[in-house]
Design brief:
It is built from one helix and no strands. It is largely without helices or strands. Mean pLDDT is 74; it is low at 22-38.
């Protein structure tokens, strides 16, 4: 064998020996790790449990080291922060706990970032990414606009109790639970203090988001307006005047029935039609003015009962001129209060 051949053989054997010694000295996780043939290797391009990254090479300085750890503290799967491209990140490199070692969901569980809005999970939006500033946050909440959960009822919300919880009457997506009546359901609920309900939460359309009338006299302002039977300045029932300004279980001016103390009752709350909104006669001799006018039996100038002349100007339980019975002191009694028929309204003979 020539010197050249012997040198070549020596170099080959030296190289082979160095490779064998180096392979035996490698640590787990190193590129080219010697395994039994079944284990995945750092450097195979697949992120395995306990690997932070795997770029398929054994080169440092490209963001992923040769032992599959991240360089320069970059965001990564396994850091418990949901980053763009990740479906989940539970802070570990384990499979079988709902989030895989490469930060994808297991068993197709619904999650923020999957592009599906899951209101039952408290999501307001889901644009399929984990990027801020595009209208939907990485936590699936709307950006830069009124939000369900801010405690204010915005269109088209039915309710907003300021939280993202179900089971308290208002769901996490701001819809009513158990079909409860509510302001905004297009049904006027006077028993709940509503004056109107136009099915939205918009101001300036005649009905406020709290279901109170706009730009007109309001039930609850303490002033009795036409069509109101009463107005005690509050929105409570049980105090004689209901929350929708109708009287509770008592006679009232405006019900079309003349009650004691009323001179008339035309069933409305309009002045100028002969009967005032307080049920007193207009533009004519009235009971209570102290002048006996047909067909009054008496008029003592007040609206009180119990003094011989009732509030509606009829005599109380005593003989009277005009009852068709000639009583002591009367010269006649023709049963009316008309002069010129031979017997005056004071029961004296005429002519």
């Amino acid at each position: 064998m020539t010197f050249s051949s012997r040198l070549t053989s020596t170099l080959f054997l030296s190289t082979l020996l160095a490779f064998a010694l180096g392979a035996c000295d490698q640590q787990p996780g190193d590129l080219g790790q010697m395994t039994d043939g079944d284990e995945a290797l750092c450097g195979d391009g697949v992120v395995q449990p306990d690997e932070q990254c795997d770029d398929g090479n054994g080169v440092d300085g490209d963001g992923c080291t040769a032992n599959c750890t991240l360089e320069n503290n970059q965001p990564a799967c396994g850091d418990a922060i949901l980053q763009p491209g990740e479906q989940c990140d539970d802070g570990n490199g384990l499979d079988g706990d709902g989030c895989t070692a490469n930060c994808t969901l297991e068993n197709n569980q619904p999650a923020c970032g999957d592009g599906l809005v899951q209101p039952e999970n408290g999501e307001q939006c889901d644009d399929g990414n984990a990027v801020d500033g595009d209208g939907c946050t990485p936590t699936c909440m709307l950006e830069g606009q009124p939000l369900c959960g801010d405690g204010i009822v915005h269109p088209p919300e039915q309710c907003d109790d300021g939280n993202g919880q179900d089971g308290d009457g208002c769901t996490a997506n701001c819809t009513l639970e158990n079909n409860q009546p509510a302001c905004g359901d297009s049904i006027v609920q006077p028993e709940n203090g509503e004056q109107c309900d136009d099915g939205n939460a918009v101001e300036g359309d005649g009905c406020t988001p709290t279901c109170m009338l706009e730009g007109q006299p309001l039930c609850g302002d303490g002033i009795v307006h036409p069509l109101e039977q009463c107005d005690d300045g509050n929105g409570q029932d049980g105090d004689g005047c209901t929350a929708n300004c109708t009287l509770e279980a008592q006679p009232l001016c405006g019900d079309g029935i003349v009650h004691p103390l009323e001179q008339c009752d035309d069933g409305n709350a309009i002045d100028g039609d002969g009967c005032t909104t307080t049920c007193m006669l207009e533009g004519q001799g009235a009971c209570g003015d102290g002048v006996l006018q047909p067909p009054e039996q008496c008029d003592d100038g007040n609206g009180q009962d119990g003094d011989g002349c009732t509030a509606n100007c009829t005599l109380e339980a005593q003989p009277l001129c005009g009852d068709s019975i000639v009583q002591p002191g009367e010269q006649c009694d023709d049963g009316n209060a008309v002069d010129g028929d031979g017997c005056t309204v004071t029961c004296l003979l005429e002519g």
